[in-house]
Specification:
This protein has 83 residues and is mainly alpha-helical. The chain is 49% helix and 7% strand. The protein is built from four helices and two strands.
Length: 83
């Protein structure tokens, strides 16, 4: 997965369809595509953009919500002796 083929293409499409306004928050995970110099330079060129990258402490919360969402969507199938 290259930065050029993934996040840069997505960013160009998003900013083509919607303008970047002052106070816009860009939140990303700590993936390599987001940390790549090409993409960081693109974000830094948007002076109105507030960039948020979660700290490692957020990994616990993100893991919890992933588990919660997974269980709510694919929840356990309850087995009963009654049909």
């Amino acid at each position: 997965m290259s930065t050029q083929d993934t996040i840069l293409t997505a960013w160009r499409l998003a900013t083509h369809n919607r303008a970047v306004h002052a106070g816009l928050i860009f939140y990303s995970d700590r993936g390599t595509q987001y940390a790549n110099n090409k993409f960081v330079n693109v974000l830094n060129s948007c002076k109105k953009l507030l960039k948020v990258c979660p700290e490692k402490a957020n990994a616990v919360a993100e893991s919890f919500f992933k588990l919660l969402k997974t269980e709510l969507i694919y929840g356990p199938k309850l087995i009963t002796k009654y049909k």
